[in-house]
């Protein structure tokens, strides 16, 4: 089985070494369809999705995953019916009520990315508490994208950067990819190695648009509430079959022989 390279190729073939820990990002999709198939309201699909998240977080460290980013609520999800939005807004509380103590003890650092504006004060407090209580942890990183949109994140970064240029803190000529990325909400996190989307859909839906530049994509035919360690393992196994070239080429393949 090929071991996926997690560093850009710089000419010399990569030495055989232990694979670097992975950043896996997941679009937790299929809650509504899962509920519909059972004749249940969509809200119960979302609650079942919280259970799948618990299973996935528990399984991730054993698969050499160190960063896990999950898409919990997009800036476009506000257009759903009010009752469903209310249920989605209640999910972080539901999750942290049962899990925060465990995450704290297990060395997991939690970060919630996305706009805090538009969230209730209760929810903002829950997010702040989860981040504060786990701030000293560094064994595993759980990043929850909530009220998050890739385009919103990029435009917010551009707005802040433009402000810093106008204030004379940054010279426009110094702007490059690394500087721009330092203004994104994901600034302290490596780019995802693999983006996983269950449920059969094959699109990004405004998730990690900048960060996805060299991510591998794995699409799986399982609805998120049914997701478990075996699906995560299958996604990682699939990732390890990929050869990552980052726009480069494998030196041995460049010159034709014979
Ligand atoms: C998309 O499925 C899923 C969501 C909009 C919500 C996902 C959230 C969770 C699984 C739990 C989040 C937990 C925390 C802690 C935030 P969909 O409803 O669009 O599914 P469908 O395409 O089948 O309708």
Structural class, by secondary structure, is alpha/beta
Number of strands: 6
Rounded Rg: 20 Å
Q: What is the spatial order of strands in the main beta sheet?
A: 3-4-2-1-5-6
Summary, kept brief:
This protein is an alpha/beta fold.
Architecture overview:
The chain is an alpha/beta fold. The chain has a domain at 22-149 and 192-241: 3-Layer(aba) Sandwich (Undecaprenyl pyrophosphate synthetase). The protein is built from eight helices and six strands. The chain has a six-stranded parallel beta sheet with strand order 3-4-2-1-5-6, with helices on both faces. Strand 3 (108-113), helix 4 and strand 4 (140-148) form a beta-alpha-beta unit. Helix 2 (42-59) runs parallel beside helix 3 (82-105). It is globular. The two termini are 28 Å apart. 33% of the residues are buried. Residues 1-13 have low confidence and may be disordered. Bound molecules: farnesyl diphosphate. Farnesyl diphosphate (FPP) binds next to helix 1, helix 2, helix 3 and strand 4.
């Amino acid at each position: 089985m090929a071991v996926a390279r997690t560093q850009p190729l710089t000419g010399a073939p990569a030495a055989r070494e232990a694979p670097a820990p992975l950043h896996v990002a997941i679009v937790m999709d299929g809650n509504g369809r899962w509920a519909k198939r059972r004749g249940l309201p969509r809200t119960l699909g979302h609650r079942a999705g919280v259970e799948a998240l618990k299973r996935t977080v528990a399984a991730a460290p054993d698969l050499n995953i160190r960063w896990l980013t999950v898409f919990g609520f997009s800036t476009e999800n506000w257009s759903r019916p009010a009752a469903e939005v209310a249920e989605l807004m209640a999910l972080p509380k539901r999750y942290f009520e049962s899990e925060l103590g465990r995450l704290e003890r297990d060395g997991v650092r939690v970060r919630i990315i996305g706009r805090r504006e538009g969230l209730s004060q209760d929810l903002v407090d829950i997010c702040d508490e989860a981040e504060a209580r786990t701030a000293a942890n560094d064994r595993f990183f759980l990043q929850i994208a909530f009220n998050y949109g890739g385009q919103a994140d990029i435009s917010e970064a551009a707005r802040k950067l433009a402000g810093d240029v106008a204030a004379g803190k940054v010279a426009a000529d110094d702007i490059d990819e690394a500087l721009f990325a330092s203004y994104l909400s994901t600034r302290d996190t490596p780019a995802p190695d693999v983006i996983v989307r269950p449920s059969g859909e094959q699109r990004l839906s405004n998730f990690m648009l900048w960060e996805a530049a060299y991510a591998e994509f794995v699409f799986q035919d399982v609805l998120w509430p049914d997701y478990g360690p075996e699906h995560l393992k299958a996604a990682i196994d699939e990732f390890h079959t990929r050869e990552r070239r980052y726009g480069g080429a494998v030196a041995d393949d460049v010159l034709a022989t014979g």
